[in-house]
Sequence to fold (337 residues):
Amino acid sequence: MRINIYYGGRGLIEDPTIYVMDKLTEVLEELRVEVVRYNLYEDKKGINILPNTIKEADGVILATTVEWFGIGGLMQQFLDACWLYGDKGKLNGMRMLPVVLSSTCGERDAQYTLIKAWELLGGVPCEGICAYVKNHVEFETNEGYAFLIEKKAEEIYRLISHKQQSFPTSINIVTETVLQGNALELTPQESEQLSIYVSDDSYVKKQKEDIQELAQMFKGMLGEEEQEESVAKEDEVVETRIPAFRSHFHGQMGLKATYCFNIEEEDAHLLLEVKGEKLSCNYVDSDEAEVSVKITAEVLQDILDGEMTLQRAFMSGAVTAKGDFKVLRNFDLLFQF
Fold:
C-alpha cells in the first residue's frame, strides 16, 4: 500500500502540521505502508504535474496550515491542477485524509474547503485532523494529542486496506451533471501531457518568444507607417515657418538685421534678412549673420505660436545665441507673434 502526503505549508520549523505528518508517517510505516511526502513549496513550478503522482497511490493526505485565511495558495494550485490535468478515473473513489492546523481562526473552514474540493474531484474524504494550535511545543509534547493522531493513521489504513464502502452524496450527482460540462474532456494520457506542457518552462518560453517575434514584426510595420506620418508632419511644419515669419513681420525704416536660426534636430539653418520694411527668408547657412541662434524645433514653434518671445527663451536658457545682442533684442519688435 502507498499513501501520498501533499503538504501546502511553508515548511517553517514551528509549523505543527509537520509534526502531525511525521507522526502519521511513523505509524503508517509501522503498518508497512509506503509513505511519500510532496512538499509543494520545494517545487512550485512542478505543482501542475504532481496530480500524475496520485495514480501510484492508494490514498492521499492533504495537509496544510492556516496562517491567516484559507488553505493557502500552493494547496489551491495543487487542487486546481488536479481538476484540470488529473486522471479523474483514478481520483474517483480515492480516499483522502484532510489535515488542517491553524495558529489563527478558520481551521474548520479550511478543512471543509479541502473536503468539498476532493468530493468535486470524485474522491472520498475521511474524517480528518483539525485543530487550533496556540503553542506548538505544548501541542507536540501532549501525549493525548499524539494518541489521537495515531488513531487517525490506523483509521485511514483500515479504510483503504478493507476498501470500505461509503454512502453516496449529492455532490457526486452535481459533479456528474453540472460541473462535467465545464471540464476538459481529455484522456488520462492527454491530461498528463498537458500538465507537462504547462509546467515546462522551455515550452512556455518558446511560446513567449514566438509571440514577441510577431509583436516585433507588427511593431516594425506600424513603425514604418508612423515614421512616414512623422516625416510628413515635420515637412508640413517646416513649410509653415516662413509664411509665419512673413505674416508677423513689422519692418521699420532704416533698421537692418540678419538672424540665422540653427535648428538642432533638422540640421537646418533658417536665415532671416531684414532691410527696413523688406524681409527675406531662406533655408541657407550664413557665417555673416549678425545674430546666430541655436534652437530646437519645439522652442522655435513656441515662438511662432506666440507662447514665448525670443528674448525670454534666451534669458531662460532655452536657446543660445551669439553676435550683436542689441540686434537680438530688436527681434521681438520686428516679429510680433
About this structure: The chain has a mean pLDDT of 86.
